[in-house]
Amino acid sequence: MASAPTATAAELLARTRGGVLLHGLTPPRQTSSPDQADGIAAAALKRLRSVQVDGLILYDVDAEADRAATPRPFPFMPMMDPADFLDRHLACWDGPVIVYRAVGKYTGEQLEHWLSGADRDRVLTVLVGAASRHQRVRTSLPEAHRRHAALPLPPRMGGVVIAERHAAAGAEHLRMLRKQDAGCEFFVSQVCYDLDHTRDLLSDYTHTCRERGLDPRPVVLTLAPCGSMKTLEFMTWLGIDVPRWLRAEIDRGDPLAASYEQCLLNARALIAYCRRLGLPFGINVESLTNRKLEIDASVDLARDIRDLLG
Predict the structure, then answer these.
(1) What does DSSP say about strands 20-25 and 281-285: parallel, antiparallel, or unpaired?
(2) What are the E-state strand segments in the chain?
(3) Which residues pair with 285 in a beta bridge?
(4) 3-state percent helix, strand, coil for the chain, nearest multiple of 5
(5) Number of helices (H) and strands (E), helices first, in the chain?
């Protein structure tokens, strides 16, 4: 039986004033047996035992076939529902968990049923809309927000933030404010490699909040090491901007060493910048693939970032 949580969902958000550390996990394949899923969960928690992360993020993987015109570099594999993975296989994790919901996969009733039954003391959620306006969905993000708002005690809700959209159109901070109006209490970024794109977004969001008399919500910034050109292709397909000079380093040298060093430099710079802005924040570390090399590197990176956070 799991012990009582070491921190509640509300406490996790409160601690973002000084910076929190999270680790992102993708659930096992849908075809995994219960024993295999138990083993995957146990291995993940064993790796994280020495890191002292403040919380987990569980992703909800969708095919996103309309995301880009180019083919997906890695074939899409249906994954276990993150909420089921948490309930059935991660019971021994006693900290807060952010469960993603790709709302387009679910009917409004299915989404509302899960929101109504989630453990609000332990579980937070990030509601994610379609990757493309052409994607066919069962529930739109605005409808998901309305259903969340209509419930008496749903889990605390967050939203996705993408610095690349801000670099392209300059309006991502306004999108964040609209999500904030819809009930988002925090944000989680796409993987950050372009430091200037990320700082521009954080600056515009924080200063616009203060101009409007609003308190900025916590922003969790995601970092992930890249161990191969194939992973770099996948990052590009996902819409992650990697500076040209770093792409050359990854292509011509040791990909993992080059990307790891940059992730650590970015973490140091972003921690200092968020603290200077007075913006509550977190750092989330994940692996974009299931390659052991990149998974191990993500745990090492989380450990180094824990030291930076103090």
Answers:
(1) parallel
(2) 20-25, 55-58, 97-102, 123-128, 156-161, 184-191, 219-223, 281-285
(3) 23, 223
(4) 50, 15, 35
(5) 12, 8
Q: How far apart are CA 237 and CA 231, in angstroms?
A: 10
Buried b (16+ CB within 10 A) or exposed e, 78-98: ebbbbbebbeebbeebebbbb
The 10 Å Cβ neighbour count of residue 252 is 9
Q: Which portions of the chain are predicted below pLDDT 50?
A: 1-5
Which domains are present in the chain? 9-309 (3.20.20.220)
pLDDT digits (tens, 9 = 90+) for 108-134: 999 999 999 999 999 999 999 987 676
Q: In this predicted model, what pLDDT tens digit does every residue of 247-276 receive, in sequence order? A: 999 999 899 999 999 999 999 999 999 999
Cα 262 to chain centroid distance, Å, stands at 19
Task: Give the residue among 175, 76, 67 at the shortest CA–CA distance from 131.
Answer: 67
Tokens of 115: 């929101």
Q: What is the rounded CA–CA span in Å between residue 98 and residue 220?
A: 11
Q: What does the block give as tokens for 196?
A: 């200037």
SS3 assignment, position 172? helix
For 57, 114, 175, the CA distances from 43, given in Å and listed in that order, are 16, 27, 38
Burial level of 292, CB count in 10 A (0-12/13-18/19+)?
exposed
Rg (CA), the chain: 18
Q: Hunting for tokens 């453990």 — which residue is that?
A: 119
Identify the pLDDT of residue 7.
87
Q: What is the pTM of this model?
A: 0.94
At position 34, the amino acid (one-letter code) is P
